[in-house]
Amino acid sequence: MGNLEGALEEWRRLYEAAIAFKRLKSWEWMSNDDYFAITNPETGEIGYCVIMGSGGIEFGLNVYLGPKAASYLKEIVDFPAGQLGDDNEELLFSAKVVSLTFEDRQALDKKDLSIIRELGYKFRGAGEWPMFRSYEPGLSTWTLNGPQVRFLTVALEQTIQVAERFRQNHNLYFEHDEADDETGAKRLHRVHQVGENGTGWHDEWLPWHVEGNFIEPYTYPDELRLKQLKKRLKPLQDIWESDFDYAPLPIGERGERAVFPRLCLWVSEETSMIMDVKLTEESDCREQYVAQLLEFLEQTGRKPARIAVGSKKAYLALKNSADKIGIPVSVNPHLPALLEAKEAITSSL
Most Cβ neighbours (<10 Å): which of 34, 35, 95, 296? Predict the structure, then answer.
């Protein structure tokens, strides 16, 4: 009972923070570009707080997590000029986020409503019900665990403080730049510190324009295998079409968080026949994807005149290995044989 009471008190603090955040309506003067960083006091992990609502459609707070969080935000801010272009599904499934949104009652599940009743809160009306969710690459949406509840709570509390400061001073993010040639090169970072005089939060400043990309070109580790293949493959006139995506087939036991597997697909442009298809539960399936190609090349002893892929992510996964084998790679999101094969497979799942 004590553990349950402790958990409920953590949820109560989260709901109180969410209610205060909703009351503030910081989306009226802050957009999703005005994000800032916060360090998790428990783990040291950095999260990026993005206020939603300036567009008048969805209201809440997303906290983006993980080593790729900053480059992910760069990707969606640059959209559609970023690496993933208009690959909305890949963007959606690639995010690692703890989230608060304000929803209609019917969007909440039984656990949400049970916690609200247990805590004694009453919400009424459309878009008034706090909903807290966890998003992980390749996994189904899920409820928050204890550490996530605590981190989202402090993220909301710090967002309220930052938003109040931002309302008073719209140059808040630009006053501490260290770059000589541009403003906005630094991003506010809130850090919790324990010192001789107690605990508290203070400002630090992180580079805004982070180095690297959300998806880096992939290098297959077995260089010798690639060299040996190049020597013995004979050319074909056919073009092979290929891509990998998340399959709409959640895998998992009832009550457990489901996995959305990757579907790795290869199709002949000439015949429209499926040459090979594999499912893998690895969200980062680039090694398996390249290995799938190499296995097929080894079995047939032939290489296509060109590989046409349906996405930039597939291009970045294959390009290095294909160059070493001597196969040109191109990108075209509208490949008829590939799209027809995808439709046939997904409709059968």
Answer: 35
For 29, 127, 144, 302, the CA distances from 108, given in Å and listed in that order, are: 28, 11, 13, 53
- Beta-carbon neighbour count of residue 48 at 10 Å? 22
Dihedral, 173, 178, 181, 185 alpha carbons, nearest 10: -40
Average pLDDT of the residues in 196-215 = 81
The DSSP call for residue 271 is T
- State the average pLDDT over residues 312-340: 96
| C-alpha 174: how far from chain center | 27
Residue intervals of the chain classified under CATH 3.30.420.10 are 223-348
The answer to whether the beta carbons of residues 132 and 113 sit under 8 Å apart is no
Q: What is the DSSP letter of 333?
A: S
Alpha carbon distance 326, 85 (integer Å): 27
Percent of the chain with pLDDT over 70: 92
Question: Tokens for 239?
Answer: 């073009």
Cis peptide before 207 (omega within 30 of 0): no
Domain 223-348 in CATH 3.30.420.10: yes
What span, in angstroms and rounded, lies between the C-alpha atoms of 200 and 223?
51
